[in-house]
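retry 2 of 3: previous attempt timed out while embedding zinc ion. Reduced batch size to 1 and resubmitted. Inputs unchanged:
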Amino acid sequence: MPARCDRLPLLTVSPGTSRELVVHRFGRAGARPKVYLQAALHADETPGLLVLHHLYRLLEEAARRGTIAGEVVLVPYANPIGLAQFSNGDHAGRYEQGGGGNFNRNWPDLAAAVADQVAERLTDDEAGNVAVIRGAMLEHLAGQQAASELHSLRLALAGLAADADVVLDLHCDDQALMHLFLVPAHWPAAADLAADLGCRAVLLAEDSGGSSFDETFSTPWTRLAERFPDYPIPPACLAGTVELRGRSDVDDATARADAEALFHSLQRFGAVTGNPPAPPTARCEATRLDATDTVRSPVAGVVAYAVELGQEVTAGDTIAWIVDPTQPPEAARSAVVSQASGLVLSLRSHRYVRPGMVLAKVVGKEPLAHRQGGPLLED
Ligand SMILES: [Zn+2]
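retry 2 succeeded.
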């Protein structure tokens, strides 16, 4: 069965203009497992756009060979609003310029939305419960009236992903190594995916506090299982955010290799038949997200890094010097240290900061006191 392409119109924001979401579908609608992949929800994070271009080709070949066993939904350009936002020549793709905030925050709590509706319909049949909950989530989303262009985008994306078995949201950091965000319920189930991708960190949090896109589809299952402990409710949607290194790590060879890694994972999930090679040796263990230090600058100035990406550091090591060039040289340099011991996972590319800006992420193993009780993701 060849690929099908749907074009979903967004709510028109001004007369005479229109935007649409382009969706590529492989396999039979309703076949399981259903895998949903999207790129560039943060619209200035471009690696995923090129990765899904290469994955599209691999899936077309698989469709020609008749080896798509499940359903694969590809949204290679998930944020047409943000992809069109430029400000004075710079791509501004993280926040909606219409005041809608961070594109990857404040997604709806689908567990809260459907809990009352499913309460009377749950039984001892686990598969039946999965079907009931998926149906209720889709029904809830279909019943929403879009109040803005952004809202129409959110409803369209959520409507495509809500009943999937696997949801992968492709992002990137500023300068970074490959990593993956998951809820703990999907570890070690996602270990082969992490190994295929060559992840250098897998960061686990029950609730990162930001209502990100991936958690919108993973947490309903864990939350409903907690709310209805007498009924079997599995973690039926393996949803994760894949951080495809840094924003400049965009080239055909890298993207092709990442697409092949994702294709092997699609085979392991059973969405595509065939025997993938054994996953490469894992390059990391999973760690708690609250053990990763997001090292912030307390002052403004020029960033002079004391470490490199991938370096192992010890708590107390200097990550960067922040230089205020208006001060006499002996007073101009402030050291910023890591509170975690571990791998330097990300750095920033623009080497000038204001107070509070993140300089680095360091992947520690032990939960950090200052990371408790607040949101674990950046704004
Ligand atoms: Zn992002």
